[in-house]
Amino acid sequence: MDIPPELKVFIISMSPVGELRASIPIGIGLFKMTWKEAFLFSFIGNSLAVIVGLLLLDKVVNFLSVRSRLLFRLFEWIFDRTKRKYENRFKVWKELALIFFVAIPLPGTGGWTGVVCAYLFGIPYRRAIPSIVLGIFFAGVITTLCTLGIIKLI
Predict the structure, then answer these.
(1) How many structural domains is the chain composed of?
(2) Inside any domain, residue 29
(3) Which of 131, 19, 119 has the alpha carbon at shortest distance from 78?
(4) 154 is a domain residue
(5) Count of CB atoms within 10 A of residue 76's CB?
């Protein structure tokens, strides 16, 4: 069975590791998609994944933490580290910090980390979702422009 490249790009964009920072260059470079197609499928996939992730994160963390001491300690480590690293920015800037944090295409940032930050800093869903999706949009624009060689990041 041959999976269409659009579906591959969509699925890659949903992954917590690559998100659209990986799926856009893969779509354009490997699958020879137009930048519009790569951007669209990546944006939709990444946005859908983080919206579902944000809505389910609390339930999943609680479910897994109760059943596994190892996962409890892993979540505790990830959440404590994230809180220490970003607490000051989120206290002051809240949703605006979330937009910029997700938009900057650097390792350790992105939609999935934005979900964790929104969860940890108590940003309500109705404000977190638009902020994260807007950040994903900006990240997609930056990634697309870099992939096309229009802008170069050092």
Answers:
(1) 1
(2) yes
(3) 119
(4) no
(5) 11
Question: How many angstroms separate the CA atoms of 151 and 105, rounded?
Answer: 13
In a domain, 152, yes or no: no
Give the three-state DSSP class for 139. Answer: helix
Length of the chain measured in residues: 154
Q: What is each CA distance from 66 to 69, 73, 106, 109, 119, in whole angstroms?
A: 7, 11, 33, 28, 18
For the segment 43-78, what is each residue's pLDDT rounded down to a tens digit?
A: 999 999 999 999 999 999 999 999 999 999 999 998
> What element of type H or E holds 87?
helix 69-93
Q: Are 37 and 140 in contact (CB under 8 A)?
A: no
Q: What is the pLDDT of residues 85-112, one digit of tens each?
A: 888 888 888 889 999 999 998 888 999 9
Give the range of the structural domain holding residue 112, as residue numbers without chain letter.
Answer: 5-147
CA proximity to 31, closest of 10, 48, 17, 16: 10
Tokens linked to 136: 């994903």
CA 20/CA 143 separation, integer angstroms: 8
Instruction: Please report whether residue 103 resides in a domain.
Output: yes
Give the single-character DSSP code of 29.
I
